[in-house]
Design goal:
Length: 536
């Protein structure tokens, strides 16, 4: 037997390992491969759930001129290589976050085109509009080049919380205020209150959309007021009270209806119990958790601002309306999870509500049993609902991708996971860790057991620090699963609306503003949790 030099032996061992790794990655396996020839595994009426329960592949084709089957048998193919997490361990590093911020800013302060120039030529003006997505043909969703009240409000609020360029943010917010005042002053062509319209046209200066749509959308006024209240508080803190008094809270009904904030909140206080559309603009109810929880937040914040502006009567009316809403919220917890409405129970709108509307008052606190149960219920639902989650498991990608709700069908390749829903779930994990550190106490045992299942730990956290570390890891895992589908050079961290439920490819609206705002906001809450872990 010939003895090889130790250095040569080491090189041969590494080479052999590399060859084996390449062979393992390139070895064909039985699975779901959309580009392979198809053989029918079901019948024309089979559902996605029935198909997957049979062990078949659900591979939608849209459009489908050749009438290809969607439920097909598994075939042999080469799987993608295992997921490799970034060396720094961060879901998104500072360079990647800056890139997503640049994409986000492209969709904010969208210009109006008019003919007001001195020579009658078209000119581009900063009008403050926020486009939902610069995509004129998203597939089933059609044209997304509109400014939705909801999306715009949440995106501008996220901008204030994620962008450190104060001068730039102040300028963008003032343009947004101008946009809001233009919207509020418009005549409504659809027979409803202008404040409850879903969306406004772009690039023309803010006309209500006149086509068929789910109306009224009662969450819009409260969400918009919440964003403007945060801006008003920032202005007041910087001795810019004149802007607030001139545009946001005028104290005079003849001047911008009392101000952009008061005009919206007056509607919420008077109409919070009215019927309207859900967050996804598909069904109607007078008791959506999303609407109620975010309205309560807006009214409480608005009451504080009204007091600061010397309007005690309005402050009292907002406080009373918020208390009335508060009395309805506990009924949404069924002992397992918080449901959105009786006609749509398991819905990620509830998770988004937790992250948008918590008032630090213990009502559905981030570390509570109610929040943990809701996250767990929906994580289990969407893990089984989307084949891509099971494929990601096999590729050792951590986390889980979240969709909208049970029974969703909207999407070019079938209803898939939504980036904004997944990002909100990650933020909820970080918020749970922050809340436990703030209290310096673990949740009660019943809640802690639920969190342990979410964290996928064999031993429950025994200290607030251990809980926070587990929450950080769980949130990171969820964002890592988003990363796995957007880090390819061809995508370069542009965020669409959805992922294909089978392949994980991006689908539907491209470069969705709300996707950017939510992922960036989750990253910001991660920063806050890490700082809190270090006592900052």
């Amino acid at each position: 037997m010939t003895c090889l030099p130790s250095r040569l032996l080491f090189v041969l061992i590494l080479l052999s390992a590399a060859i084996l790794a390449v062979h393992a990655q390139s070895h064909p396996v039985l699975g779901c491969f959309p580009d392979n020839p198809r053989t029918d595994c079901g019948n024309p009426t089979i559902t996605q759930q029935q198909c997957l329960q049979k062990g078949c592949c659900w591979l939608p084709v849209n459009p489908n001129p050749n009438n290809e089957p969607w439920c097909v048998n598994q075939t042999m193919g080469v799987p993608p290589p295992p997921f490799s997490p970034p060396a720094d361990g961060l879901p998104f590093n500072s360079t990647e976050r800056a890139l997503m911020m640049s994409y986000f800013l492209e969709n904010i302060n969208v210009c109006c085109i008019d003919s007001s120039g001195p020579d009658g030529t078209e000119q581009c003006q900063n009008c403050g509009g926020v486009v939902a997505a610069p995509d004129y043909n998203t597939g089933p969703g059609g044209n997304y080049c509109f400014a939705w009240i909801r999306d715009s409000a949440l995106s501008m609020r996220a901008l204030m919380n994620t962008n450190n360029d104060t001068t730039k943010v102040m300028s963008l917010m003032k343009n947004y205020v101008n946009w809001v005042l233009t919207n509020q002053a418009a005549d409504d062509p659809n027979g409803i209150d202008i404040r409850t319209e879903p969306k406004f046209t772009l690039p023309t200066p803010g006309y209500p959309f006149t086509g068929g749509w789910c109306r009224p959308q009662t969450d819009g006024p409260g969400l918009r007021a919440t964003t403007l209240i945060q801006f008003a508080n920032a202005l007041l803190a910087n001795q810019q009270q004149s802007f607030v008094q001139q545009y946001l809270w005028t104290g005079d009904s003849s001047q911008y209806n009392g101000g952009a904030i008061k005009f919206d909140l007056d509607w919420v206080a008077a109409n919070w119990a009215s019927s309207g559309c859900d967050l996804w603009e598909e069904i109607q109810s007078d008791d959506f958790f999303w609407n109620r929880y975010t309205m309560r937040y807006a009214l409480v914040q608005g009451s504080a601002l009204a007091s600061a502006m010397g309007d005690s009567s309005t402050a009292a009316s907002y406080t009373a309306a918020a208390a009335a809403i508060n009395a309805t919220l506990s009924a949404h917890y069924n002992g397992q999870f918080v449901y959105e409405s009786t006609n749509r129970q398991e819905d990620s709108a509830v998770i988004i509500a937790f992250t948008v509307g918590y008032l630090n008052d213990g009502i559905f606190a981030p570390d509570s049993q109610e929040v943990a149960g809701t996250l767990l219920t929906l994580a289990e639902l969407f893990h089984g609902m989307f084949y891509i989650n099971q494929q990601d498991d096999k590729q050792k990608v951590p986390g889980v991708l979240f969709g909208r709700y049970q029974g969703d069908t909207y999407g070019a390749g079938g209803a898939g996971p939504w980036i904004l829903c997944t990002g909100a779930a990650a933020q909820a994990m970080y918020d749970a860790g922050l809340e436990v550190l703030r209290k310096n106490a673990l949740p009660p045992l019943t809640a802690l057991k639920l969190w342990g299942r979410l964290f996928e730990v064999s031993t429950l956290p025994s200290t607030p620090a251990e809980f926070a570390a587990a929450a950080l890891s769980a949130g990171d895992g969820i964002l890592m699963r988003i990363r796995a589908h957007v880090e390819a050079p061809a995508i370069n961290f542009r965020l669409s609306e959805q992922f294909d439920p089978t392949t994980g490819a991006e689908q539907s609206a491209q470069s969705l503003t709300w996707s950017y705002s939510q992922v960036l906001l989750a990253c910001r809450h991660r920063d806050m949790l890490v700082a809190a872990q270090h006592g900052q």
